Amino acid sequence: DGGITQSPKYLFRKEGQNVTLSCEQNLNHDAMYWYRQDPGQGLRLIYYSQIVNDFQKGDIAEGYSVSREKKESFPLTVTSAQKNPTAFYLCASSIGFFNEQFFGPGTRLTVL
Amino acid sequence: DQQVKQNSPSLSVQEGRISILNCDYTNSMFDYFLWYKKYPAEGPTFLISISSIKDKNEDGRFTVFLNKSAKHLSLHIVPSQPGDSAVYFCAASATSGGSYIPTFGRGTSLIVHP
User: Fold this and answer.
1) Which residues of B touch A109 (CB under 8 A)?
2) Are strands B86-94 and B56-59 parallel, antiparallel or unpaired?
3) What distances in angstroms separate CA B64 from CA B3, B38, B72, one per listed residue?
4) CB of B108 within 8 A of CB of B6?
5) pLDDT tens across B10-55, in order?
6) What is the C-alpha separation between B88 and B90, in angstroms, rounded?
7) Which of 72-111 (B) contact A at CB < 8 A?
């Protein structure tokens, strides 16, 4: 049963703490992405990766970091440098760039 | 500056009628367009796409129309069903320019009343 999993679904952190959001896919997709969604906003691209050990900044990469050590995994770290980290975070993958994206269920991060 | 605009934040339609969701874009390099559907607290799911070489693509109750000269596309849902109630995102990418990653609009919330 292929798909994308994100954990946890809800996450609470204190201000100033780094937090890592998990994203795993078993679809054998090469490309993976992280988006952020805020109320009334579209999906804004944080980071993306075309292949293992390679990733690129998206439109709003400041305050975030990623790694792509395995094809299946693309974790996102929200650092204390991110000014407004409270948001809904979505991970996605695609076979290649020129294909539709498959999204995970999302993680809602709340920083208190 | 928004390159993909969905100017209607919400749309309310009676069950059985047609739903028309609109999307405008400003970047003339966009040549591939997608629609995604999203339920609350879930990730978006791909619905339908269209390449700029076409002006219409149909899949069951869903049809996407593309007007390149007007830089406008629309998603038609006929007939609308209560289960169609969701947020619909329009997305566009410039594949010929090498930038395949889509740019998303802000979404339109569709409510289909029984």
Assistant:
1) none
2) unpaired
3) 19, 17, 11
4) yes
5) 999 999 999 999 999 999 999 999 999 999 888 999 999 999 999 9
6) 7
7) 89, 95, 100-102, 104-107
